[in-house]
Amino acid sequence: MHDQGDLYTQKIEVENRNVKAMDEQIQLLKQKVLYQRKHMGGVNAARENQSMIQKQIRILENRLDKALVKFNEALAHNKQLREEIDNLRRERVVFDNIYRKLERELHDKKKQMANIIELSNLAYEQRDAAQMEVAAIEAQNRKEQEDFEQHMAELGRQIERKRSNDRGDSRGGADNGSMTMEDEAKLKTKVNKGAWGIAKEKVAIQVSIEKVQNFEEAFN
Question: Which of 96, 115, 141, 174 is most buried when burial is the number of CB atoms within 10 A of its CB?
Answer without folding.
Answer: 141
